[in-house]
């Protein structure tokens, strides 16, 4: 498990012919998708289209029944979640899952772990190695907090943050992993228009400055259309359309999928 | 009934309660930390404590000519390491395979824990029988450890009492430091709060669980040696009562809470010694010291009735 060089312009996260079945439900069927570094790629679709299942497959929570998942030239499927995370996939959750009893800073420090290697003895004796690593982790965590506008809240208990701040801390924590790809599961859910606007700017700057590949699941179509370079539409676990936001918006199959759901 | 006596012996009673309470606190931490990361009551922990005590006795008897300081340090180290490794082994052999297969059924690991508990009791009995042709081990007497010192307010303390306090304080301090101030501690707390989210942040839960068992085992083993030092005799069933009282202490403090376990242990230790000493006095000898064990269980019932999440608990105790 080696980390791929950081600024790899051609870095891709690929899903190849992946299927996943839960009992009688075919959640994902023979799905093929490719996400690229430096782009914001939205995955949309009606409820139950398999979007969250896709995230769980990508991050190693679920194993595909068939097919494979690749990051650059390394195969991801079959690896446990902590390895996938260490290899460069950071994610947030639809229903916020912070470590509520920890401080804001500690939440991010947890995500720095995979590049820290120190033993009990290092920690108790506070060896140079240990202190160097802690300092390094602290820097990474602080940077992530500043990017998400939480620098001043670093000492607060995560459980005491406002809803918008909690959403942002989730992203900061994922950034502290120093991921190649950032998977955002409905980051704007429950946010007011101003917060959503702010979030949109932040996400755009992540793409530009960190050259991250961002995979976005979102129901706020305004955000999706305003932010994405590429949109893939899922229905019943398969891709029914893909392209620029404009192209997808006018695709008859997409309109049917959405209207069909409402009718 | 003589109130003056009650008042006169109060400092001694509190001190003795504190010593026992520290032992309970150290065991309780093992229950609480494992519960924190796994949601499992590791009932085999009382036997981890007992085997630590046996290991400590063996080393101390073996090193009896090396003097009290060396014998003590080696015995404590042996207790910590043997128990720590035993706890890790139990997790690997008994709990981990079950976690992979029957993760939804919480009763399964609980029953397994009870099974492991019986297994270890009999294993210790077999060992003592085969190797020593005996049923128990006795901690050696060192004059320095038995020597009594006078404290203010007519209280006295033995050398071993001072040792117990020092070692326990050190262990609790180191544990606090590890959990609050180190990456490993953060990982333990993260896994305790949300194992899946922690794994998605790059933390290997199995590694954290192993370390938690090791830490809990070490504390239990050291507690075992200190307990042996205090009460001198250790047999294969010596773990049962301290174990179940420490479990009570962990529930009292709020299981999963580390300060809660320490606090609960101290409270229960003091309560037990006070009850055991004063009950015969206030009842004119009608109720004897042997009823002291009632207190722990009365407390357990009371918490479960009135505050099931414990004093410092987070409010989800129904998992057992």
Keywords:
heterodimer, A: alpha/beta, Rossmann fold, 2 domains, six-stranded mixed sheet, four-stranded antiparallel sheet, 23% strand, B: 320 residues, mainly alpha, ABC transporter involved in vitamin B12 uptake, BtuC, two-stranded antiparallel ribbon, disordered C terminus
Structure description:
- The complex is a heterodimer of chains A (263) and B (320).
- By secondary structure, chain A is an alpha/beta fold.
- Chain A has helices at 51-58, 81-87, 104-111, 120-125, 128-147, 163-176, 193-210, 221-227, 245-249, 252-262, and strands spanning 12-22, 25-36, 40-44, 66-71, 74-75, 89-91, 181-185, 213-217, 230-235, 238-243.
- In chain A, 44% of the residues are buried.
- By secondary structure, chain B is mainly α.
- Chain B is 74% helix and 3% strand.
- In chain B, the strands form two sheets. A two-stranded antiparallel sheet of chain B has the order 1-4. In chain B, strands 2-3 form a two-stranded antiparallel ribbon.
- In chain B, strand 2 and strand 3 (156-158) form a beta hairpin.
- In chain B, helix 1 (3-38) packs antiparallel against helix 9 (205-231), helix 3 packs antiparallel against helix 4 (107-132) and helix 10 packs parallel to helix 12 (293-306).
- Chain B is globular.
- The relative contact order of chain B is 0.20.
- Residues 316-320 of chain B have low confidence and may be disordered.
- Classes of the chains: A alpha/beta (263), B mainly alpha (320).
